[in-house]
Amino acid sequence: MASILRPKALRPGDLVAVMALSGGLEQSEASLFARGVEAIEQTGFAVRVSPMVDLERRWWWAAAPPREVAEDFNGLLRDPQVRAIFSLTGGRMTLSYLDLIDLAAVRADPKPLLGFSDISTLHLVLHARTGWCPCTRTLLRMDSVTGTSVTTAARSSRISTSAY
Fold first, then answer.
1. Strands (DSSP E) along 31-150, which ranges?
2. Is the pTM of this model over 0.70?
3. How far is CA 118 from CA 59, 83, 92, 154, 155, in A?
């Protein structure tokens, strides 16, 4: 087993990215998504929204074909300015691009990857292959389903990563 890789603590002003690592953005959830981004910004982070999070993007039930999702994900993993990645939603996509993830980028600069459901597959594989410690967190669009406010989820993410 690889040694444990822990992400650095997030600090106010850090850049975090929101990406559709599996399912895409639905028109019915656009206002919820906007509120989620605003809540993350209100906790003190700068937010970059990935091109994968676009109402016009669709590939079957996913945001894009596996190679495109992997390329964008790898770009975020390699970008030294991006300090955490929030998943827009879960879905059924991650198994299709696991072999395309840049594991060297994960090892070089481990970042919190926040999400669950299909994103748990990424958490487990990245931990098994690199020793990286995952962060399970409410998906950006889930507050209306779970009753958890997006602001609370964003604050919890900051608190849970600051322990590292």
1. 46-49, 82-87, 113-115, 135-136
2. yes
3. 17, 21, 6, 19, 22
pLDDT per residue of the chain (164 residues) written in tens, 0 to 9: 568 888 988 999 999 999 988 878 888 888 888 988 998 999 999 999 999 888 777 666 667 799 999 999 999 999 999 999 998 887 778 889 999 999 999 999 999 998 878 888 899 999 999 999 877 665 555 443 444 544 444 455 444 444 43
Report the distance separating Cα 119 and Cα 104, nearest Å.
19
Nearest to 33 by CA among 143, 152, 135: 143
Residues 63-68: contacts with CB under 8 Å, at least 24 apart: 63/20, 63/22, 63/23, 63/24, 63/25, 63/88, 63/93, 64/20, 64/24, 66/93, 66/96, 66/97, 66/100, 67/97, 67/100
Is residue 76 within 8 Å of residue 106, measured between CB atoms?
A: no
Structure tokens that stand for 82 in this block: 């991006």
